[in-house]
Write a structure and sequence with these properties.
With 906 residues, this protein is an all-beta fold. The chain has a domain of 79 residues. Helices cover 0% and strands 37% of the residues. It contains no helices and 79 strands. The strands form 18 sheets. The protein has a 13-stranded parallel beta sheet with strand order 7-8-9-10-11-12-13-14-15-16-17-18-19, with no helix packed on it. The protein is elongated, with a radius of gyration of 55 Å. About 1% of the residues have low confidence. This is PPE family protein. One of its GO terms (biological process) is response to host immune response. It comes from Mycobacterium shottsii.
Length: 906
């Protein structure tokens, strides 16, 4: 068995013709022989860098591996994890292909048993990307389908949903033809043609009159016009000067003033008289028209026949509720070429199996590309993964984080590795809710503690604040770190005993340094001083102030071995705690290293492990248990604001979800498992037509008055005539005139005018007789639509939440980021019925920073407390809510109290 050579007899041989175990060569008889024709025992391993027995390859871990880099028994391939794998990077038994998870797969990237094909999830699938059993075809969901993209049993055709179908795209059983049995439904409201008619008879008898006022033209004066001429007589010559004007034209006769205007007279008003239509009312304008709308249909239900049921893919698909690009089979897959249930394809090559997100995957809840198995995580490029919960590339096996690391812990919600327990943040812890490494116990913050609720490192015991302490409830002054105490309830360092305040004391209830004895006050004293040291203590072996009980070293404590302040209980090192072994502040419960917690073993410091209600919470503001994250309601949640179990993402409602904002189980992506509904219907185009007709004949009759020009006058004007001549005073013959003078001689003045122009008719009365005639003939037609209407509903994360931003859980309102039920706060909360942000628990109100049940105020843990900085049950502060009261215990009223039923008002 498990031989990789030829003609070998025995186990784990990788050569030829060997007899025995782990021989690597030819013709060997024996164990672990390297070479040819040898006999005997050569060694437990042959090959190189092997760990185990009878390995003959390279870098193997296990027994009888003859390949390279295998982990397991009898693997002869490369990088396999399991038994008898001869392929590459397989996880399982007897796989001869590559990157398979399961048994006897000869293909690649299969999850299941004996799949010869590739990327299948199931058994005996010959094709590719099938989910089911013995599918020879491709992309099928079901059994024995020889066609492609079928959902069901023994379908020979393609895209069938059902059983024994030989046709294509059919739904049902035994169909022989194509597209048979497809679901369809159509219900529509038919709207008949809606006619409308228009008839208008409008009588027209419209008198129109117009008034035209007389036109006055101002008098006009033309300026003087110069006029000259030449005179050349025998006895005289010169220039005749005769200017004309000025000439004035004015209205009226000659006696009228020169500025009298010229008037154009339009007669008695109104000057214009018209009538549209006959005055007797016989003129009527008739307008006729029509409008038709429809017929049309309004579909209310319109489910068109298609392969499968309620699919919304761009190509044909079988199955139910598939959507996205391409074709698919199965149930509620998104994207192309998927088979199975709830897979999301991010590329053209899809997935088989269940809830995978990515491409080329088989199995369950894988995220990435080229993966088989369960809950593996790769990237967008091919990861070549097989196995269970691996992270990285080219890996096979379980819980591998890259080639050299692991994510394995024995428990739930461990962000580290090699933890035994749950909710540990770190590695190599044995216990629950530890923050750090190598702790043995519960709720430790630090490393290498043996015990619980230690805030520090290398402590042996519980509730120690500091390091290297042996015992419980040891702390330093003012809650500083204590070092090297042996005992309990010591405040300081290097004390042996209990109830000591100081350093280096040996004994009980000593106050000071270096004392040996009981009840001593001072330094380096050896004797018996008293049952208590300090002041105001009641009981035995108390140091400190106002303690009641046994072995207390702090202030105002009630109980046994308390080294903090105002604690009620046993072994508390913090402040205002009620319970046992609390090293934080204002905790109610057991072993709380954080602050303001209600419950057991909640861990954290200031920002980590505070305000939890429950047990073993390393995170903050959680209601439940084992939550490393914050604001969770439930258990084992590594993410934030989850409601449910073991969610590593954020704002999820459900279990084992590593994505975000999802409802359900095992989701790897975001916004998965959210219900949605879309209804959409298209109203086809509806025809319409319209027409208008009218013959218009409207007579127009009337007249325009006579237009008359009134009298006007050209006024009298003068023309003075004179002669301008030149006289020669000295004349020289043959030379000419050498001295002359020019003289102007008036001759006469002529008077012209006046001229009177009588009134005249410019335009006689003008009758008007015409008509407005036209024909209006208009028609048109067209369609309205098509129009699509509908509605959709998309579920938000959780159920019935109405918060401003997403919340998980049920019926939450407010600002968002909540988990749980019925919370209404202006910020993130967990639990049930809380009214203020940064709270956990149940029905808390009054302010932020609450854990527990029915507390009112702020910075409280426990049950039914009222005030600020209270732990325990039914305690009441007498201060205002802004002042810290520091009360622990049961039924106390006042401030700075511990114990039971104290009343500072009495």
């Amino acid at each position: 068995m498990f031989n990789s050579g030829t003609d070998n007899v025995g186990f784990f041989n990788s050569g030829t013709g060997n007899v025995g175990i782990g021989n690597m060569g030819t013709g060997g008889i024996g164990i672990g022989l390297q070479g040819d024709n040898l006999m005997g025992i050569g060694g437990l391993n042959s090959g190189s860098f092997n760990v185990g027995l009878f390995n003959s390859g390279t870098g193997n871990v296990g027994i009888g591996n003859s390949g390279t880099g295998n982990v397991g028994i009898g693997n002869s391939g490369t990088g396999n994890w399991g038994i008898g794998n001869s392929g590459s990077h397989n996880t399982g038994i007897g796989n001869t292909g590559s990157y398979n998870t399961g048994l006897f797969n000869s293909g690649s990237f299969n999850t299941g048993i004996a799949n010869p094909g590739n990327f299948n999830t199931g058994l005996f699938n010959i094709g590719v990307f099938n989910t089911g059993i013995a599918n020879p075809g491709d992309y099928n969901t079901g059994f024995y389908n020889t066609g492609d993209y079928n959902t069901g049993l023994a379908n020979i055709g393609n895209f069938d949903t059902g059983a024994f179908i030989t046709g294509d795209m059919a739904n049902g059983v035994f169909w022989r033809a194509d597209s048979i049995g497809q679901l369809s439904a159509h219900y529509a409201i038919t709207v008949n043609r809606i006619p409308a008619f228009l008839t208008i008879d409008a009588p027209v008898n419209i008198p129109i009159t117009g008034t035209i006022t007389d036109i006055s033209i101002p008098a006009v004066t033309f300026p003087k016009v110069p006029a000259t001429g030449k005179v050349d007589l025998a006895i005289i010559s010169g220039t005749v000067i005769a200017p004309i004007g000025p000439i004035t034209i004015h209205g009226g006769d000659a006696s009228a003033p020169l500025n009298t205007p010229i008037v154009i007279d339009f007669g008695t008003q109104p000057a214009l008289q018209l009538n549209l239509g006959n005055p007797d009312g016989s003129t009527v304008v008739h307008v006729g028209g029509y409008f038709n709308f429809g017929p049309g249909q309004i579909p209310l239900i319109d489910i068109k026949p298609a392969a499968g049921f309620f699919n919304a893919t761009t190509g044909p698909s079988s199955g139910f509720f598939n959507l996205g690009d391409g074709s698919a089979s199965g149930f509620a897959n998104v994207g192309a070429n998927n088979s199975g249930i709830w897979n999301v394809a991010t590329a053209a090559l899809g997935n088989s199996g269940f809830q995978n997100i990515g491409s080329q995957q088989s199995g369950l809840a894988n995220l990435g590309n080229a993966i088989s198995g369960f809950l593996n995580t790769g990237g967008a490029t091919p990861a070549n993964l097989s196995g269970f919960q691996n992270i990285g590339t080219d890996l096979a096996g379980w819980y591998r984080n890259g080639p050299d690391a692991t994510t394995f812990s024995f428990g739930i919600a461990n962000p580290g590795f090699w933890n035994v327990g749950s909710a540990n943040i770190g590695s190599y812890n044995l216990g629950n809710a530890n923050i750090g490494d190598s702790n043995f116990g519960f709720g430790n913050i630090g490393s290498a503690n043996l015990g619980s609720a230690n805030l520090g490192g290398f402590n042996l015991g519980s509730a120690n604040l500091g390091s290297y302490n042996f015992g419980f409830a040891n702390t330093g002054p003012a809650l500083s770190d204590a070092i090297g105490n042996i005992g309990f309830g010591n405040t300081g360092s290097y004390n042996i005993g209990f109830g000591n305040t100081g350093n280096g004391n040996l004994g009980f209830a000593n106050t000071g340094d270096g004392n040996i004895g009981i009840g001593l006050t001072g330094d380096t004293t050896t004797r018996f001083g008293g049952w208590n040291s300090g002041s105001g203590n009641i009981g035995l072996f108390n140091s400190g102030t106002n303690n009641i009980g046994f072995g207390n070293s702090g202030t105002g404590n009630w109980g046994i071995g308390n080294s903090g302040s105002y604690n009620t209980g046993i072994g508390n090192t913090g402040t205002t705690n009620t319970g046992f072994f609390n090293s934080g502040m204002v905790n109610t419960g057991i072993g709380n290293a954080g602050n303001y917690n209600t419950g057991c073993y909640n861990t954290g410091c200031y920002n980590t492990g505070d305000f939890n209600t429950g047990s073993f919470n390393p995170g903050d503001y959680n209601t439940g248990g084992f939550n490393p994250g914050n604001y969770n309601t439930g258990y084992f949640n590594e993410g934030n604001s989850n409601t449910g179990l073991a969610n590593s993402g954020n704002v999820n409602t459900g279990a084992f979800i590593s994505g975000n904002y999802s409802n359900g189980l095992l989701w790897r992506g975001d916004y998965q498992g959210l219900l949605g509904f879309t209804y959409e219907s298209t109203v086809p185009a509806i025809p319409w037509n319209i027409g208008v007709h009218s013959d218009i004949d409207i007579p127009i009759t009337g007249a325009i008055n006579t237009i008359t020009q009134d009298m006007f006058t050209i006024a009298e004007f003068e023309i003075p005539i004179s002669l301008e001549t030149t006289i020669f005073l000295i004349y020289v013959p043959f030379v000419g005139c050498v001295l002359h003078v020019s003289v102007t001689v008036p001759i006469t003045t002529e008077h012209v005018g006046p001229f009177v122009i009588d009134p005249s008719v410019i335009n006689p009365q003008s009758p008007i007789k015409t008509a407005i005639t036209d024909t209006i003939d208009f028609s048109d037609a067209g369609t309205v639509g098509p129009a699509t209407f509908g509605f959709n509903w998309q579920q938000s994360p959780g159920f019935f939440n109405s918060s401003d931003t997403p919340s998980s859980g049920f019926f939450n309102s407010g600002a968002g980021g909540a988990s749980g039920l019925l919370n209404d706060a202006q910020g993130a909360v967990s639990g049930i019925g809380n009214a203020f942000l940064e709270s956990s628990g149940f029905f808390n109100a009054g302010g932020p920073g609450l854990s527990g049940l029915q507390n009112v105020g702020t910075l409280e843990s426990g049950w039914a407390n009222f005030g600020n900085s209270l732990s325990g049950i039914y305690n009441t502060s007498i201060l205002n809510l802004m002042a810290q009261a520091f009360v622990s215990g049961l039924g106390n009223t006042g401030h700075e109290l511990s114990g039971f039923l104290n009343d500072a008002m009495a």
